[in-house]
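Listing S7. Sequence submitted for prediction.
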Amino acid sequence: MTDVQAIRWLLGVLNETDRPVSTRRAQEWVARMELVGLVERQNLGGPGGSVVWGTFEATGQSRPNIYRQTTRHEIAVSAVSARYLAAGFAWRRDGRPTYVGGHQADGVAIGQRTSELIEVELTPKRAPRYASIFAAYRRRLELGEAARVAYLCTDDAARAVRTALSASPAGRAVAAHVGVRTVFDQRGAVRAPAGERAMSDEHAILLDGER
């Protein structure tokens, strides 16, 4: 599940550029795919335009419930993954943890030499939950599963993550390997001004291009 703004970036990747296509071109592409039965769409009034998902004929999966509470988060993850792909990363879903106390990230961005565990954080969590997550990330970082963790947040969530990193032993243990950036507004829309880039040491993710 995604939205038109993320599709702009994905079409840019297919065109072998690191820039998004125009909103109009993305809308035209969605309309063509809908006409041949590969996608469906619904305008929920969100900042990224219509919500878009693959049909059963295209994906083998049933129609998603676009009104559930996690929809905003899923669309925000798709927006981030599209920008990582445009910047030359590979992207995959994180696997489910195989041990007690593990934590599944929202995605894994794989660069030429390193990989990052990506967290899209639209709402703050409680301090004990962050401590548990940081402990799980410490184990993963020590095992070499990733080089860094990137938290891409709203204002409120970014403050909560930064506080949690300094307030607990688990947070302080991983703080040097965790980047926190304010990327989303309170609606879950990417809001970086022109030229601002999402956190990454090896690569930079452009978050502008709204036109």
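Caption to Listing S7: primary sequence and predicted structure tokens for the chain studied. Residues 206-211 have pLDDT under 50 and may be disordered. The CA atoms of residues 156 and 188 lie 12 Å apart.
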